[in-house]
Amino acid sequence: MKPSGILPTQFTLLVVIRGMGPVAISRMAEALVMDRTTLTRNLKPLERDRLVTVKPSRHDKRTREVNLTKKGVKHLELAVPLWQEAQQKIEASLGSERLDRMLEDLTAVVSSAATT
């Protein structure tokens, strides 16, 4: 991931923003099962590096929306193959069955955290 210039946590945020389009911080935090203040803190470096913009919504000025910039899209495009390569290495190391079980367990943990 290093050659892309973004950290794995930042990659996740950029992927979510790309998938959700211009998205309210509160909605994004909910989708990530993350506290809004933590998300805002994690978005700051991306905003500083001009990979995302955080602006008031056109529909409701009280709501702040996050969107990818062209620079953010380029960084994400560089990072995707690196992410895929890392995932392949993990699968080769653990085996697909073990990796699937681990992902199922993590999904259960996240689901449990979301309901508490």
In short:
By secondary structure, this protein is mostly helical. It is built from 5 helices and 3 strands. A 3-stranded antiparallel sheet has the order 1-3-2.
Question: What this model shows, in words?
Answer:
This protein has 116 residues and is mainly alpha-helical. It has one domain: Winged helix-like DNA-binding domain superfamily/Winged helix DNA-binding domain (Arc Repressor Mutant, subunit A, Orthogonal Bundle). Helix content is 67%, strand content 10%. Strand 2 and strand 3 form a beta hairpin. The radius of gyration is 16 Å and the shape is flat. The model has no long low-confidence stretch (mean pLDDT 92).
* Structural class label: mainly alpha
Mean pLDDT: 92
- Work out the helix count: 5
CATH class: Mainly Alpha
Annotated CATH architecture: Orthogonal Bundle
How are the SSEs ordered, and which strands pair?
Blueprint: H1 8-20, E1 23-24, H2 25-31, H3 36-48, E2 52-56, E3 64-68, H4 70-94, H5 96-115
Antiparallel strand pairs: 1-3, 2-3
